[in-house]
Amino acid sequence: MTGLLERPETTPPPSTGAAPRSTAWLWVLPPLLLVLLVVLYPLVRVFMESSVDGSWGAVLGSEMFRDALWRTVAIAATSTLGCLILGTFLAIVLAFVPFPGSAVVGRLIDTVLALPSFLITLAFTFLYGSAGAVNAAISAITGSSSPMLDFLYTPAGVITAEITFFTPFVVRPLLAAFSLIPAAQLNVAASLGASPWRVLRTVIMPEAWPALAAGGSLVLLLTLNEFGIVLFTGAKGVITLPVLIYTRGIVTFDLPGAAVIATVQVLLSLALYGLYRVVFARLTTRRGVGDAAVEPPK
Q1: Domain assignments of the chain as residue spans, ordered by start
Q2: What does the alpha-carbon distance between residue 150 and residue 159 come to, in Å, rounded to a whole number?
Q3: pLDDT by residue (tens digit) across 125-134?
Q4: Handedness of CA 193, 195, 199, 202 (dihedral sign)
Q5: Considering just the CA atoms, what is the radius of gyration of the chain in Å?
Q6: What is the reported pLDDT for 163?
Q7: CA distances (Å), 156 to each of 57, 146, 161, 228, 230, in order?
Q8: What stretches pass through the bilayer (predicted)?
Q9: Domain 54-286, CATH number (from 1.10.3720.10, 3.30.1050.10, 3.40.50.261, 3.30.750.80)
């Protein structure tokens, strides 16, 4: 009776049709088309415009282009160095030297990230310009009719404004990196008799090198392509590559020349980004090897 009630095992018939093809790749098309339209198409048009006969030789051979290239790199490098020094100092103070109002200072630094760059230039004009508040106060004290501070309309003024605006881009990654350092690690180093400077040099900064490299590289790319601060400062003789592109393309309507300078700007930015990726990869690899070397056996 049990044998009669048991249902014989049957195997499903072999599938004769092909497996349904996945259509997930179709979701890639909209963002890919958007990137091609918004990013690659303008770059291709700029490169094609720069291919007019004689444009490259005329632009690269001009003294104005060489001066603008050198001035752009010099201002960007100096501003980046200043941001690294000031940003590292501010991040260390905010993270490890608590003081009343430190949270307010941190919020103010975050606020600068949301502001357009030309507002910093306008603020500097109201403060340090020829008719600014600082010069007015100095004139009221000394009785001098000529402004005592006259650096705003020079490369030093541009560098100062860029350091003021771009320093938070270094502070924020460093604060995030410092927050990941275990407090016990700092306490052990201090209990072993290490001075604060040695703790900073041997414990804190090795953990912050990747964040410092990331922030510094971002600031270098941003200052290299900065246009608003240089334009609104109105510094005479401070012609950078973005300003030269604006002058060639908008003022003199030399579109092929502007396209050549823009192509050089793009290639320079891509080269710096590639260098950043190489340096960042080496720093993270070295850090991973060091962590593996000190990891205790299980």
Answers
A1: 54-286
A2: 14
A3: 888 777 777 7
A4: negative
A5: 29
A6: 93
A7: 32, 19, 9, 16, 11
A8: 24-47, 68-97, 117-138, 212-235, 255-276
A9: 1.10.3720.10
